[in-house]
Amino acid sequence: MDKKIGLFWLRDDFRFAKNNGLIEATTNHDQVVVFYLYKKDTYKDQEAQKWWLSRSLLNFRKKLNDLNITLQIIETNSFKTFFEKLIKKKDFTIYWNKVYEPDYLKFDEYLLQTLESKKIVHKRFKGNALNEIDEIKKSDGTPFKVFTPFWRTAEKFYSEKIPPKEKKISKCAKKIKYFKNIINESEIYPYKNWFKKFEKFWDPSEESALRELKNFLNSRVNNYSVNRNFPNTIGTSKLSPYIKHGQIHVETIWEECSKLKNISVSKFLAEIGWREFNHSLINYFPYMCNKNYSKK
Known about the structure:
single chain; alpha/beta; five-stranded parallel sheet; 42% helix
C-alpha cells in the first residue's frame, strides 16, 4: 500500500461501477479523499443543474462514508490556480477520469505535464465512453465525418475488445480530511424552492440510474423508435442526466442492452453511438462547440 494519501478528482463520475480512477485510488491507498471543484460562475444561470449536482454530491457522499472515504467540495474560479497550490504539498498521489470535452482534455495535458515535472505520482483513466477518441478513425488515419460508417467501425471495435476484469472500490482503513476552506453541497442548492416538485420525479443516484435503465429495457425499448418522437408519451430512456453526470457508465448500458437482441435495442444503442460520434467531432473540429460544423 502507498503510504501517501490517495486523491481522486471527482468530475462527471458519480458512480462506483466502472469508476476506474476511484477504484485504483482505493486499491493503492489506505486513506482516500475524493474532491470536487465547484466553479460557481459555470452554474450562474443553471438552476436545474445546481439541483442535480448538489443532490448528486449528497448521495455520493453517503455512499463514500460507508467506505471511510471523505468527499470534500472546494469552490474555485480556476482549476489551474487550485492545482498550483495543491502541487506544493507533494504528500499525495492523484487519480482522475477523462471528460471528453476539448477544454477538459486540454487542461488534462497541462496537468499531466505539471505533475510529471514535479515528480508527483498520478494516473488518468478512460472516462464515460465506449472507446477512446483516437481509437476510431478511417483507414487513412483521418477522423470520420459521417455517423453511419463511424458507428459501424466503433461498434465493431468495442464489441471485439477483451473485457477487462471487473474491479470494485475497496473500503479504506481510516477516514480523513485533506482540504481546508471547503463548502457543503447545500450551498450549491438553487435559492428558490421550485425544485421540491422536481424531487418527485428524479433521484440523482447510481441506483436510480440503473433502475431507470432496467425499467426502460423491460417496458419501453420495444417501441422506442416510434414513441421517442412524441412528447406526450414517455418513450425515451430518461437516462440523459444520469449519463451526463456519470451516475451510469455507457459500458453498463451496453452490457444490459446486449442481453436483449432486437432491432429496438440497436436503435437505442445507436443514440449512444451519436454521443460517441459527437465526442469525436468536437475534439477533431473544436470550433463546433461555438458554431455550425458546416457553413451551409
